[in-house]
Amino acid sequence: MKKMMRTAAIAAVMAAGALALAGCGKEAEGPYAGQTLHIYNWGEYTGENQIADFEALTGARVIMDNFESNEQMYIKVANGDAFDILVPSDYMIERLIQEDLIQKLDQSKLNCLDLLTEGVKGLPYDPNNEYSVPYFWGTVGIVYDKTKVSEEDLEQEGFNIFLDEKYKGDIYLYDSERDSFMMALKALGYSMNTKDEAELNEAYEWLVQCVETMEPEIVTDEIIDNMAQGRKALGLIYSGDAAYVMSENEDMGFFMPESGTNLWSDAMVIPKNAENPDLAHEFINYVSSYEGALDNSVTVGYTSPNQEVMDELSSEGGDYYGINAYIPRTGNEKDEVFVYDEATRKIISELWSKVKVAASNA
Amino acid sequence: MKRFPQLAIPYIVWSAIMLLLPMLLIAIYSVTNQGNSIVSFTFTLEHFHKFFTDPDFLLILWRSIGIALKTTVICVLLGYPVAYFIANSSERMQNILILAITVPTWINMLVRTYAWIGLLSDGGIFQSLLKLLGFGEVELMYTEGAVMLGMVYNFIPFMILQINTSLSKMDKSLLEASADLGADRVQTFLRVILPLSLPGVVSGITLVFLPAVSSFFIPKLLGGGQFFLIGNVIENQFITVGEWNFGSAISMIMAVIMMLSMYLVRKLDRDEGAERRVTGV
Fold first, then answer.
1. Average pLDDT, whole number, for chain B?
2. Partner of B223 for a Cys bridge, out of B58, B102, B219, B264, CB 3.0 to 4.6 A?
3. Within a domain: residue A319?
């Protein structure tokens, strides 16, 4: 879910450096010595020791490329670039399954499904976890400055608080068509997976009203640092980013409207053309294990699907104790997972680009 | 002397494949529509129609050209004195100064623009400085000013280098002749130096205006997601919307606008040159 342009630039340089360095290391030992694992993951989305530890454990060499959007990843994979592990989001996994680009996991090689928390298993895009094992999960909600925003407004207005002129000039929107339309559709009381053009158009009008009257700043990951420094009152944010913001700044809160929100999950899958599926299964097991999941969640700040890690980090003494954003909400019937539908996706992207045009002409 | 024209063949083939072919594809994309399973594409002008009938797009196009023009004017006004100063320095100093202008361009533009985010953002150096001077909390990031600053900063080296080249190439004996004929320094500048350096200014304008009008990452980074220029519209059509045909059509429109403006600038330059010869400055 993270989108970081600078990471992409830096990662490219580092990858080149890593390749050069890898050549001079000693011959590694382990069950997979001499083999290579190609990972394609989001930028800034890996535990600080993940790669080194996995290499030490297996003796294999890991090469990681980063992407900044599901679509960017899709183009490469659909063009036939070979990777052993991908970490796409829910709706993109659905698309990859539909287009026959990823393979069923070999359950006999996996030992990790029992470790995962119930809330993240069997989500609609892959009901039996035949293709994917969750990597991180979370929701989308509102990050707010408790000193500037009244809880009452949040409770009453939900996502409609982004149209409340009391907070004009004091809000961040997230530059993502899916999340913006989710917010608008949920504010209007519709399903975020609606295919009804009239409802989509209403959502579009809602967003246009927002950008024309509220003077929002439409940002991506700048929201994380800016909210941590308390620069605006409100923003649309991924729960994992909110957890980080709240751990940095006590004045910040995270709110999930009762009208429902997006429950998302980024999960590990193995493409059809993977060169080393055995090693890929090994990697999935490692990342899901207590050690791998702890390292991941502590570094990145997103919610671990590993039950034990989730409990430990959110209980007293844990890194995210008392931070509601760390535990994704389960049990609200209006929360939904994204469903992939190409026709709707196209309508939404076109409308979102019109919203941005309206914003710059406002 | 024997010539080897066939040596140019690899180059011609290379540029045909790497330059002409992509351009041709964009041109084809811009006048076609993805068809169904029977016809792979159909010809249409609807993308152009869509662009020119939508006031929102035209407004953005207008603003993009305006910002690029302002950037170009600022670059000329700031770049000319700098180039003049460099051209009149000692040779050693010239080398050092040219190097100083060139060194930043060795670093990737994207990285340098990111540096500006840090400088301009809330609580950054510039805001603190303005606060110290009693201007209060001025919002610098995500404004047109920030975008202009980023553009001028990124493109001004091209202007300085071009003007400097034409200034330092100038035959110094012309200046002596001008002085001999009784012109003072201002007259010499206005009637000899300035006209002779105009070709440099013109190519400088070309090198600044073209990238400025189509730039998309500078407005994206310094202007924020709500600051759309025509380059962002094109990027958006290709990367997120997936409407390659419409994106190509806008690219073609931009290409035509750029060619026209270049033609006008060159013509202006030629006409002025002709005039100079006639009046015999």
1. 88
2. B219
3. no
